[in-house]
Design brief:
The protein is α/β, with parallel strands linked by helices. It contains 9 helices and 8 strands.
């Protein structure tokens, strides 16, 4: 199994990182993709520690739309900061998470757009996939990917909660669809119906930990080991053994991120 999106460099995990890594390995995880906030020195330091504990871990580096306002004066600087960190992070494999978030609007939308565009251009230049965050901004997110990606940039719609139109558009762009713990929630039947239209060769599994713990861990801090619950749910939906679902989504991860 692979957790294709988690935040193990977050300070939430600082005190028991060793135990979390051991539980992930005991649960059968091959590796995880850890998201790093570009320019965050604390996360970069914890990433180094994490690499020593789990050499198979890989990283994505990006400026989240919530932090885009930090680059309002010069959005291109966001891409420069990401580029520098990726080049000095040997296990970096993607630009992300990046995108647009109109739910919280922690950053002005025009600034979000400019920072997002700059990072998609960077991913295209570096021939790296992107990890996309989109919330209540699907059409604009897709427009940026189409305009700046030039048909060359591939990636993943992380923590997918969208409808059929977003799923179809993402697949048409060559993107993968990643499911987190929400897929296990009793009231997520609409999401499960949408996910059934996604081919198995385009699915990824994730935790987005420490957020969105799956059933039966809802309300607790999430962690990579819990991706097994996402795997079990998707396997049941596709009527295949969990081991087969895990193997196929792991193969998808390798195809996209070339770890």
């Amino acid at each position: 199994m692979i957790d294709s999106h988690c935040h193990l460099a977050d300070t939430t995990f600082a005190d028991d990182l060793d135990a979390i890594v051991e539980r992930a390995k005991d649960a059968g995880l091959e590796r995880a993709l850890v998201i790093l906030e570009a320019g965050n020195a604390e996360e970069a330091a914890q990433a180094e520690r994490l690499t020593s504990l789990w050499p198979a871990v890989r990283f994505a580096v990006g400026v989240h739309p919530h932090q885009a306002h930090q680059f309002a004066a010069d959005p291109s600087r966001a891409a420069a900061v990401v580029r520098e960190q990726i080049l000095r992070t040997g296990a970096a494999r993607a630009v992300g998470e990046i995108g647009l978030d109109y739910h919280y609007d922690f950053s002005p939308r025009d600034v979000q757009h400019a920072v997002f565009r700059a990072q998609v251009r960077l991913a295209r230049e570096l021939s790296l996939p992107v990890v996309i965050h989109t919330r209540e901004a699907d059409e604009d997110t897709l427009a940026v990917l189409r305009e700046e990606g030039g048909g060359e940039v591939r990636g993943v719609l992380h923590c997918f909660t969208g409808g059929p139109s977003l799923a179809d558009a993402g697949l048409e762009l060559g993107f993968y669809v990643s499911l987190a713990g929400i897929i296990t929630f009793p009231r997520a039947e609409d999401l499960r119906q949408t996910v059934r239209r996604v081919p198995l060769d385009r699915l990824l599994t994730e935790t987005d930990s420490p957020f969105l713990a799956p059933v039966p861990y809802r309300g607790k801090r999430n962690e990579p080991a819990y991706v097994a619950r996402v795997v079990e749910t998707l396997a049941k939906m596709h009527q295949i053994p969990p081991a087969e679902l895990a193997a196929r989504t792991a193969a998808n991860f390798h195809t996209l991120f070339r770890p």
